[in-house]
Write a structure and sequence with these properties.
CATH topology of the largest domain: Quinone Oxidoreductase, Chain A, domain 1
Structural class: alpha/beta
Distance between the termini: 10 Å
CATH architecture of the largest domain: Alpha-Beta Complex
Helix content: 25-40%
CATH class of the largest domain: Alpha Beta
Number of strands: 15
Number of domains: 2
Length: 328
Amino acid sequence: MQALLVENMDGTPRMVPGEYKTPEPADHELLVKIEATALNRADLLQKSGRYPPPEGASSLLGLEMAGVVEKAGADAGWFSPGDAVFGLLPSGGYAEYCVLPESHVIRKPDSLSFEEAAAIPEAFLTAWQALVWLGNLRKGETVLIHAGGSGVGSAAIQLARQMFDARIITTAGKDDKLETCSRLGADLTINYNRDSFDEVIAHHFGESAVDLIIEFIGEPYWEKNIRSLAMDGRLIYLAMMGGARISEMSLTPILRKRLTIRGSLLRNRSQEYKSELIRDFSSQAMDLLMEGKLKPVIDSIYDWKDVEEAHRRMAGNLNTGKIVLTGM
């Protein structure tokens, strides 16, 4: 099959089309003809050699896809050849075909295009895990979602609004991204290039007003996050794009406010964990997806052979929502 491979002949990794062995589904797996895949920042890390795929997974990039079932394993009974699906991958989405456990697959509604469906798994499942499984968001609470213009951020805003009627605060570095956040349901948007988010939150809602923070930045936001959290507040780390080392910190607010601080990746979770997460999300949110009340934010769609241009857009933080590759 055709796939996008990493070439690194001169020390600069780049994606090039090439041949790769077509995978065969195991008993509980599906072979899917990929129609679209979506980009994630993990792709850039894997491309540079800093984020290897889990043991036994494909060496190809790509953590999510939408397509059509080509072949079902002997014990796979939920889907049949010809079914349109989308799903979560440990790797392997930058190709014509992929294999994945059928428990990691969701049937694609007719109301969603393949491009839209491909943009759902990583963003919405990561957001669901952070808000519900780790953050224990409750109705009417206040949630601060950093990187609100990202794929995960835009999904988290919608889930918090549609399912929890939360008071939503978001940060982003560009006004057009903030406008998207407002349109999705954010009550307060903050441009971090102009304002200190903790001061803006305190001005609007008072000191220590945030019940849950979804965090991607790390060190630069540590003190501001801690100041913003309410009693019994929760801080969930999904990335640390601004740095992971905090030179000085006090543990006192963690004790005094009874704070919970957790971190999580989705890719290195077990198959069983991912299967249960997908079941839980599907049972509670699929109706909203089918009705269009939840919808992935698509920044741009590229032909898969223009992947380097797509990677540059993501690396430059120019996208609002997901970047999708198609034409496999």
